[in-house]
Structure formats: C-alpha cells, structure tokens
Specification:
Neuraminidase, globular, 4-stranded antiparallel sheet, mainly beta
Length: about 375
Amino acid sequence: MKRPILICIVGCALVVLAGAEWKAAARQTVVESPAIEILRFAQNDKQVATTNLALPEEKHLRNVRQITFGGENAEAYFSKDDKQLIFQSHEGEDTCDQIYLMDLEGKNKRMVSTGKGRTTCAYFFPNGKRILYSSTHVAGPNCPAPVDYSKGYVWKLHPEFDIFTAKPDGSDVKRLTNSPGYDAEATISRDGKKIVFNSLRSGDPEIYVMDANGKNVKQLTNEPGYDGGPFFSPDRKKIVYRAAHPETEAEKKDYQDLIQTSQLRPTRLEIYVMDADGSNKRQLTKAGAASFAPFFHPDGKRIIFASNLENPRGRNFDLYLINVDGTGLERVTYSPEFDSFPMWTSDGKKLVWASNRNAAKRGDTNIFIADWVD
C-alpha cells in the first residue's frame, strides 16, 4: 500500500506534510513519524561518488557528490574529525530504519544498531568512542505498529522509543532513558557533556537536556504543542529547534484529543532559538510553512534548515540560510525535488544533506556531500 508522504524533520529529523496532495505524492519523500521511517540502504560499495550535481543557482555548493545510490537514506551527520558519517536507512517496504556508518566516499558501510525494532536520530560523541541513537528494540524485535491515518495526517510519537549509546562498532549498548513515553531526537554538545532531546514524559512533546550519562535531566520548553529536533550551537550556549504550537481553538482541541494517544497533527513548523538553559526563546521563521532540520554554521552566526516556504502546500523542500537574529533569509538549493537534513563539517568547508535529486527511481533518497562556498 502506498504511504502518505511525510518527513522526519530530525535533526533529527521529522516533518509531516499535510494535505491530500502530499498523499498523492507517496514515496517521493517518505517519513512515517518523528521517529522517521526514511529511506532504503544502498548495498553496492562499488558505486563511486557522482559529481557535478549542483544546479547553476546553487552558488554555495561546489563539487556536489552523491555517495549513496538507491533506497531510503537520511539524516547523515559527521563525526567530529569529519571522516565518517552516521545515518539511518532501511531496505524494503516492511523493514524499519537501522543505524549505519560509512566514510565520506560512501564506502565501508556497516550497521551499528541492534537490527531490531526501529531506530532514529543518530549522532557521534565528540571523542569518537561512542555513538548516540534512539531505538524501540527493548520493546521487541518488530517494527512498532504503523500510523493509523483514519484521523488524517498525524505523527505517531511511538512510546517504545528510548535513547541509547554504544561503541562505534555497535557493541556495549547502554540505555540512557527509561521514562514512560517517547524519548528520541537526541544530539550532543561539541564538548560531549550534554545531550539535548525530545520527550513526551510530561504528556506534551518538549525539549530536555541531560548529562551524557543520562543523569540530571532538565526540561527546557513548556508550551502546548511540539518542540523538538534540537541541536546545540558550536559554543554550546544556544539551542536551535523546530516547533509547532496550536493557535486557534480548533487546533488546540485537535491537539489535546490526539496527544492522549501519543499522536499530533502538525500543520506548521517554525525554527526557534533559545539559550542552552531554556531562556530567551526566539522564533526565527514566520512563514507558516513546514520548516525543520535546523543546524548551526560553525561560526555560530548562521543557521541552515529545510523548508517548503516557497510553496507551503507543495512537496518541494529546499535548504535555506538565516542569521541567528532571524534576518538575511537566503535560499541555498533549487532542485525541484526534496533537499533536507543538512550539516556542515566542523570547519564549515563541506555540507552533507539528503536529497531526491538524481534518483534512479521514484522514492529514492540519497546522501550528498558538497564543498561549501561562502
């Protein structure tokens, strides 16, 4: 059966695209929940990076290289030494995302999660000795129940998700969270001391921070609606995230009804920044579109994110730049297909992201790397 089109805007990423036109576009960009159901794993290590895939308008991108070839691959993030990528992938209609590592040429791919349940939102510890990801494997080896779309387009915040760490080879798995409800979308600060994540433990999907060992959990957001997909700034003083807060009385009632069953119906996602202690929250985008997957430039002054703001009811997502004060909005990608989940290397010289461009078949999403030009 064809799936409705959705997007994990997670940081992790997660986003849901609302409207009948999204459903008609099934398999063009597939993500079934914030705990994404993204994209198939390319098995052929003999395929080499494809070059010259930048469009003339994409002045910030040079030497665009495709490093996965076919299937569903997304949310690729660099190790601190910028030599490896960690990403999520799955193969086949009835399989769930697992976590993989590969080098920057797309070679030496290997699975590092348990191979059970569903995983999402993987990240490297800065010292390179451990990885961070969320998984449902403790609840059982099978994929969580699929989303029930009888109530329209909704996200399912699967309560089986918890946050884990492991060695880079997948061994020595340690559980960091054990609270009722969804715990996922976790990333770690550049000094390796703090983890920021999304949780439904309070009954509302909010952002929390904890020590790298899972201790000293602190809630940072407290507003009805979804707050998630958080990333620290390079200096660890700020957090950028995405949020969808119900505004009208009808939206508030719909939200309250759905959240009782760990579901929500995001109609808009905006980009926010706050101080690392949860203070000084500021909304950067006000487009009424689905904006998500924000990430700080290494200079700490700019943020890159994905959005359909050129056509809020359309399925084409591009990358955009915005200053940390909300000024200077600039479009980065111009592909008629999906572009999202961007991350810079630690020196800002390369950008990695996921895209439908150059797909061998409809529904393929692959990982791309380009030299970044300021």
